[in-house]
Design brief:
Oligomer: single chain
CATH superfamily of the largest domain: Tetrapyrrole methylase, N-terminal domain
CATH architecture of the largest domain: 3-Layer(aba) Sandwich
Structural class: alpha/beta
Helix content: 25-40%
CATH class of the largest domain: Alpha Beta
Distance between the termini: 71 Å
CATH topology of the largest domain: Cobalt-precorrin-4 Transmethylase, domain 1
Shape: elongated
Order of helices and strands: EHEHEHEHEHEEHEEEH
Number of helices: 7
Largest sheet: 5 strands, parallel
Length: about 230
């Protein structure tokens, strides 16, 4: 039998993929690592088939390893008797707790088959929510910006976990970036906010991201309109 890491998408229940929905509906038990993912999962499976796993919000490596081992010990026996789903927001392989569970199962329960069902992650969903177009051939870097960090370097960045937007904003602006923020994009829980003003989202919220683009970046987007031809016709 199998443990499936299922990406629920960014938060709205109808952004779950068809494959993800089928996997959740067929699983004997669906584990949820948190309240928000559980809320999305219950749109597709009965609450009675959802189990909870505790992944503490801590940086203590010993506590984290103990939590991962406990989670694997809970999941493995169920997976030997049937199919298990681990439902996580976004994509299971992008900034996700599922990676910890998969590695722990591989280490301590190597007989368990583990597969991933991809989901719509904030890496792609943010473009529509923020009205951003990432052109063909353009580079886009992923960075983490927790606790006021302001990573710099690439021309375009998507920053996750922006928990101190004013501090992050100051560093990015000083480095020559234009920044747009999105909070709780495509989530039913809480108010969705899109803003260029970090003061509007000064309170800490894990589900805040930013798109940073160098203010000197040259954009030459091809269109069907050729102004040189128009000038010549005139």
């Amino acid at each position: 039998m199998t443990v499936y890491g299922v990406g629920l998408g960014p938060g709205e229940p109808d952004l779950l993929t068809l494959r993800g929905k089928r996997t959740l509906e067929a699983a004997d038990v669906v584990y949820s690592p948190g309240r928000l993912s559980r809320t999305v999962a219950t749109h597709h499976v009965p609450d009675s088939r959802i189990g909870d796993l505790d992944f503490p919000m801590t940086s203590d490596p010993e506590k984290l390893r103990a939590a991962w081992r406990d989670a694997a010990a809970e999941v493995a026996p169920r997976a030997r008797d049937g199919d298990v789903a681990f439902a996580t927001l976004g994509d299971p392989n992008v900034y996700s707790t599922f990676g910890h569970l998969r590695r722990t199962l591989d280490a301590f329960h190597p007989d368990i088959d583990v597969q991933t069902v991809p989901g719509v992650s904030a890496v792609s969903a943010f473009t529509t929510a923020l009205g951003v177009e990432v052109d063909a051939g353009a580079g886009l870097a992923l960075r983490e910006a927790a606790q006021g960090a302001s990573p710099t370097g690439p021309d375009r960045m998507i920053l996750f976990k922006v928990t101190d937007a004013p501090a992050t904003h100051e560093g990015l602006v000083d480095a020559g970036y234009d920044v747009t923020y999105g909070r709780r994009l495509y989530m039913e829980q809480g108010d969705t906010t899109v803003t260029r003003d970090p003061a509007e989202i000064a309170d800490r919220d894990y589900y805040t991201l930013a798109y940073a683009e160098r203010d000197t970046l040259q954009k030459d987007r091809a269109t069907a309109f050729d102004d040189t031809e128009v000038a010549g016709d005139a």
